[in-house]
Amino acid sequence: MRARTLLVLLALAACRATPEAPVPEPVGAARIEAERAACERAGGSLQAAAGSRLACVRPMRDAGKQCRAAGDCEGACLARSMTCAPFAPLFGCHEVLTPAGARVTECLD
Amino acid sequence: MERMTLGRTGIAVSAFCLGTMTWGNQNTEDEAHAQIDMALDHGVDFLDTAEMYPTQPVRAETVGRTEEIIGAWLARTGRRGDVVIATKITGAGNPHVRAGAPITPGTLRAACEASLKRLRTDVIDLYQLHWPNRGSYHFRQNWTFNPARQDRAATQAHMAEIVEAAGRLVTEGKIRAFGVSNESAWGTAEWLRHGTRAGGPRVATIQNEYSLLCRHWDTDLAELCHHEEVTLLAFSPLAGGLLSGKYAGDVTPEGTRRALTPDLGGRITPQVFPAVAAYLGVAARHGLNPCQMALAWVRTRPVPVIPILGATSLQQLRTNLGAAELRLNAEVLDEIEAVRRDHPMPY
Q1: Which residue in chain A has the smallest CA separation from B120?
Q2: Which of B37, B80, B11 shows the shortest CA–CA distance to A82?
Q3: B173, A64: Cβ pair inside 8 Å?
Q4: How does DSSP classify residue B324?
Q5: Rounded to whole angstroms, how far apart are CA atoms B159 and B230?
Q6: What 3-state DSSP class applies to A78?
Q7: pLDDT reading at B75 higher than 70
Q8: Confidence of residue A50 (pLDDT cuts 50, 70, 90)
Q9: Which end of chain A has fewer CB within 10 Å, C or N?
C-alpha cells in the first residue's frame, strides 16, 4: 500500500513538474467557440463566408465616410459610392479604389 | 418627419417613402432629380425602385432606366449616405425583363449586381423580391386566385436556396436587408421560417398594395406583420391616383396614368367611383386635401406602415409630402370606417 501511495505521489509530482507543457489546441466546436470569443473581443462577429467557412467580420469605424483612395479607409474604399466599406473582410467581387486611387475589381472567395 | 425602422434591421428611414416608377417614362431625369431634392428637403430619405422600372408600360428598352436616373443623382451629388435605397428583382414571367426568367440564386445575384451598377453604388439597403415565382393574388388576381396549383415542396426548396443566396449577398456587403413584395401571409411566414433556419436574412419588409380602396392586408397579414415585426411598405396608397379625385366621374385627363393605362390595372370597376366619391366627401366635409387624407390615414394603422408616395409633378409631390404634418381626428376616422363598410372592396 505504501509503495502504491508513493507511486501516486510521484505521478502527481510529475504532473506539477511540467507546467509549461503546451495546452492542446481546441478542436471542433470548441475551436469555433474559441474563435468566436476572440473575434467578439476584437469587436467583430463570426459569420458564414464562402462555402462552409466562417470568417471574423469586423465593422469599420469609418464606414460610409467619403474616400478617394484605399489609404483613406480602415478597410476598403468602395469605388462606386466612393465611401469606406462598412466591414472587413469583403467577400465576393467589389469595385474598389487602390492606394493610388485607381479603380479595380477585387474578389475574395 | 417621423422616423421608423425597417423590421428588426435597425435601418432607420423616414415615415414616408418616395416612389420612383414614373422616372424615365412620365418624368425626365431632371424632374426625377428635382423630386429627390424636394423629398430630402422635407425629410424623406427613403427611395423605392426596381430593376423593372419605369412602368406604364414596362418596356424592354427602358428596363433599368429608373435605377440609372437614381445612380446619376448619386454620382452628381455624392449623397449616398443621405438616402436609403430599396430596389427589387423582377419576379418570373415578365417577358421584358431577363426574358421572364424566374428568381433563382443565379438571377438574384446577377440582378443585384446589375442594379448596383446602374445605381452606381456599392450596397442596396433593402433588396426585395418583386413578386413570388409561384404567382400571387395581387394586381386583381384575387378574383381568380387558385393556390391549389402551387407545389409546396418546390416552393419551400426555392425559398431555402434564395434565402441562402441572399445571405451571401449580405455577407458580401451588397445588400443590407431582405424584403418581399406582392406576398401572402403563408408566403411571408415561410420566408421568415427559412430565414431563421438559415441564420438570416430575415424578411424585414413586405411591399403590398394598401390604401383606402385596397385593404387585403388588414387581417392575416397585419397580424403576421405585428407579431413578426415586418414593416408594410404600402404601394399605391392613392390607388393609382383614384383617391385624388382626378378620375371622378370616370374621366381620363391628359397626361395622367389613366391615359396610359385606361383600366388602372383593373382598378376601374363599377364599384370604384361610388367609393371614391364617398371618400372625397369625407375630405370635403372636413376641409382636407383628399390625397393628404388618404396618405395620413395609412399612417394611422395600428401596425407599422410606410406609404410609398409617387408623383409626376413637383406640385403633386409637395401636396403629398404635406400629409406628414396631418393628423386625422376621430371624427374623420369614424367617417372613413363608415365608408369602408358601405364600400368594402371596390376592386
Answers
A1: A80
A2: B80
A3: no
A4: G
A5: 17
A6: strand
A7: yes
A8: low
A9: N
Sole residue written with cell 416608377: B21
CA distance B57 to B59: 6
Q: Would residue B247 show up in a list of annotated catalytic residues for this protein?
A: no
pLDDT tens for residues B227-267?
Answer: 999 999 999 999 999 999 989 888 888 888 888 888 999 99
Which is catalytic among the residues B53, B127, B247, B279? B53
- Interface touch B123/A87, C-beta < 8 Å: no
Verify whether the Cβ–Cβ distance B122 to A80 is below 8 Å: yes
A86 close to B (CB below 8 A): yes
pLDDT of A15 > 60? The answer is: no
A14: confidence class by pLDDT, cuts 50, 70, 90: very low
Helix then strand then coil, % of chain A, to nearest 5: 30, 25, 45
Contact of B80 with chain A, judged by CB distance below 8 Å, is answered with yes
**Domain residues of chain B, as ranges?**
3-241+297-326
Establish if B72 touches chain A: CB-CB under 8 angstroms.
no
Mean confidence (pLDDT) of chain B: 96
Option in A49, A79, A82 nearest B171 (CB):
A49
Where do the structural domains in chain A lie, given as residue ranges? 24-59, 60-109
Determine the pLDDT at residue B114: 97
d(CA B320, CA B307): 11
Q: What does CATH list as the number for B3-241+297-326? A: 3.20.20.100
- Residues of B in Cβ contact (< 8 Å) with A81: 74, 80, 120-123
Contact across the interface for A78 and B122, Cβ inside 8 Å? yes
| Partners of A94 in the β-ladder | A106
Buried b (16+ CB within 10 A) or exposed e, B124-153: bbbbbbbbbbbbbbbebeeeeeeeeeeeee
